[in-house]
């Protein structure tokens, strides 16, 4: 690790029935040429449904954490699912698939590990764009005897959280 973040990032998007789309992006203010021992994670730090970037430092010298807020997409809809085991702990390794009425399956895996100077939050975050609601969810922890739990989402207006499998049909307002 050189401690230098590149001025560009690479975004790879999978497209059904086509080659992946690869796009070079400018990371803007997140380029930190003086960062020592950097590790990064994304999280919704302020609860607005937009994923923000946190960059941790500190391998060879003390440095503050950098927070980069998103400046676009504030009108987009989103859904955050926080799956838990039957014992209440975070369901690391769980696969959560959301189906909207306007798209196919959107799948997220709850990260079971961590990286260098960082760790991802145990949340399946779905950016839904302008889709108005999700038709149903299929949380699927690998260790459960049942293959999936189908949750029908009613009156989902687009800015929502679900914190337990058993109450997926009763989403609290975001």
UniProtKB/TrEMBL annotation:
First and last residue of the signal peptide: none
Domain ASPIC/UnbV residue range list: 91-130
Pfam families: UnbV_ASPIC
InterPro entries xrefs: Crtac1, Integrin_alpha_N, UnbV_ASPIC
Domain of life of the native organism: Eukaryota
Protein's GO biological process: axonal fasciculation
Protein name from the UniProt record: Cartilage acidic protein 1a
Source organism: Hucho hucho
Organism ancestry: Eukaryota, Metazoa, Chordata, Craniata, Vertebrata
